[in-house]
Amino acid sequence: MTDHEWFELVKEGGDAGWKLVWERVIVPETKSPKNADLMKRFSITDGDLMGMLYEEMMGKGKINLYRDDGGSLQGWLRKYVRGYILNADPNKHGEISIDSAGAPSDDGDGHEGMEVPVHDLKMTMNEVWNMTHLCFRDLWNDDPERAYVMLLKTRFHLSSEEVRDMLDVSTVANVDQIFSRSVKFMRHAWGERDRKGF
């Protein structure tokens, strides 16, 4: 399969293209010793990365920034994933990320997303956790299955295969899509609650 063919499949958002994203982008990045160490330190799972990438590419339409002019789609997507991992560090540049900040812009160097200046890190983290719990409650009330998938992948660090078997979901790809939708819901809920002051 050429990069152009793969790009078209990814743009469609179907299982075939995103299965290759998992195999060619997510898995290699998580196997890097440096990334694996950071992921463990900041409690990021491979499912988190897949969900963030899917949301960035499909939910926010960033896939349309790819030029498809003979470059490497794999390399381009891996830059985003590295950005998610590196930006999870709450001490990086004195800021803590609460969104997908740190992914490259179309020139590969920008920092995008929503960041909170840290004056009192402990207090800010408490506020972040309180907001997270409120948004998770919203997710549970809206769709318990999506809430279960998010909980199992982000808190218990189960693989998509394990979640599929535990919740009797038809395929691994469906688990990933459910997880992606849960991430999108949480970010929307976060924005709404932030706008209304919790």
Task: Describe this protein with a few key phrases.
198 residues; two-stranded antiparallel sheet; mainly alpha; globular
Can you walk me through this structure?
The chain has 198 residues and is mainly alpha-helical. Strands 1-2 form a two-stranded antiparallel sheet. Helix 2 crosses helix 5. The longest helix has 25 residues. The chain is globular and about 45 Å long. It starts with a helix and ends with a helix. About 16% of the residues have low confidence.
Q: What's the overall average pLDDT, rounded?
A: 78
- What low-confidence regions span 5 or more consecutive residues with pLDDT below 50? 93-123
Strand fraction equals: under 5%
Indicate the overall shape: globular
Rg on CA atoms, Å: 17 Å
Q: What is the helix content?
A: 55-70%
Biggest sheet record: 2 strands, antiparallel
The overall strand count is 2
User: Total helix count?
Assistant: 9
- The end-to-end distance, rounded to whole angstroms, is 47 Å
Order of H and E elements: HHHHHEEHHHH
Class based on secondary structure composition and strand pairing: mainly alpha
Task: Give me the side-by-side strand order of the main sheet.
Answer: 1-2
